[in-house]
Structures are given as C-alpha cells and as structure tokens.
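Need tokens for this chain, all 280 residues.
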Amino acid sequence: MRYLEKFSPIHFIVCTFVLCLGCSSDDSNTDTDVEEAMAEKIAITSFDMLSKDHTFSVLKSDVFSVDSLVVCLFPAPVDYANINPIVEFEGTSISYRINNEEFITYSESAVDNIDFSYPNIVDFKISNSDESESKVYRVIVDTDHPVMFNNPEITISDAPVNTNYNGLNIDTWTNVGNYPIRLTFRTTEYVDVITPKTGINNVFSTTLTTESDIIKPNEEGQVNVFISNATIPGAYSSTALFNLNFNENLGYIVYDDTTNIYVKDIGYAKSELKLKVNMI
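Here are the structure tokens for all 280 residues:
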C-alpha cells in the first residue's frame, strides 16, 4: 500500500493524460463519422419512361455509375420525340437540358414530354441542397431491336455445289432505332447451322451495307449474302447474329467493335437473319 501511495499522484497524472488523448481522438472520429453520415448522396437510382403512343414502358433500364450513362431500351420502336421520363433519385433537386443548353428544373407533373429523338442529346443533373455538388447523366433512349429486316428469313434459289454465290443487295433492312448505325464489320457469329452431312462448316457469310457506311434512323440499307465451300449437295441453313453495341463518345451504334474503350454493350438484342439454300 505504501508503494501505491507513493506513486499514485504520478500514476494519476499519466492516466489523466492518456484519458484526455483518448477523448480527443474519439471526438475527432465522431465528428468525421457525423460529417460522413450527413453528406448528401447524389445519384439517379431508377429511370423509367412512358411512350405517348404505346402502353408499354422501358424494357431494360441501366444506370452506368462509372460513365454516368442512363440507358433505356424499349421492346419496340416508339415515338422518341414524345416520352415522359419517370425518375427516382437521391439528392435535393433535378434538372435537365437538351443539346447542352441551360439546365431547367424538371418536374414530372409540370414538364411536357421530352424530345429524345436523334440528334437531340438529353442530360439530367442531380444536385445537393446548396448546389455545391452535382452529377450529370446522359440518357440513351432506343429500342432493343434497332435493325429490322424486310425478310428475317431469306431462302436462296437452288445453287450448284463447288461454286461461289454472291447475293449482293439480295434484300433490305431498316434502322428503326433512335441512333445512326455504323457498318464496319461483317458478322462472324452463326448459330443453328444445318448441313447435309455432319462435320461440314457453315457456308454462309453476310453483311449489312449502305452507300456511306452510316445509316441514320428510318433509312434503309442492303443485305448481302455469300455462299462458299459447299461441296456436298443438300439443304444448308444457318442463322446470322449481329451483335450491336453503342459508341458513347460518338453517339451511334456499332457492331463487333469491342476494342474501343468508348464502346459498350448496353443491352441491344442480337439481330437475327435466317438463311437457307439447297445446293444441287
């Protein structure tokens, strides 16, 4: 007991100093935690659309947080000039602009339908309470089937084996989407391949072309079908798949171009073209 009594004042001072340090540290952490908890979130959490001339809404809607893209795809072509967005967000205010003009306040009840049709560019902005922070989202609106074939199934007249068939402009297709389509590749993906003998490879190749390699909305292009390496008589068939992607930097659709960092798979359905021929 005498030992404790002798050193207790010093012990008391040290303990008090340590406790003060601990209190100071805890207060600092608490303040930081409070500030983080009070920080206002800014984000679009849900984005849907209603088309004026259709009863259905968006089939697929994704928010790309890294690139601040909102993608809305309808199951069929719609009037892109008359669409009513339904937006859920975290933040204090929401506004929008068309073609980089000034942002104006957005209200679902007060604003008429927005014209999302090409070449319009529509952005939404979410802001915090004092507008010191904000986040801008670019909205991509389209159908998930922008390529519409005049004939989704092409039957080629009987052709002789061991000869090449060149079906230039054999049929047509239309861009029924909301953005231009750039045609720079032929499809290399074929499914449901049927040949008269097991082990024979697909004999078809297919391209979609236009005179300028860019087909704008509502414009028509050509379908070209080629046949080679058919050495055995019989029925051949296959389905060509066109994989559509979106170039967010240039604002148009491309396919089979996945090396560009600005090209993304935003959810387009693969365009299917069925091909048939009887080789004699």
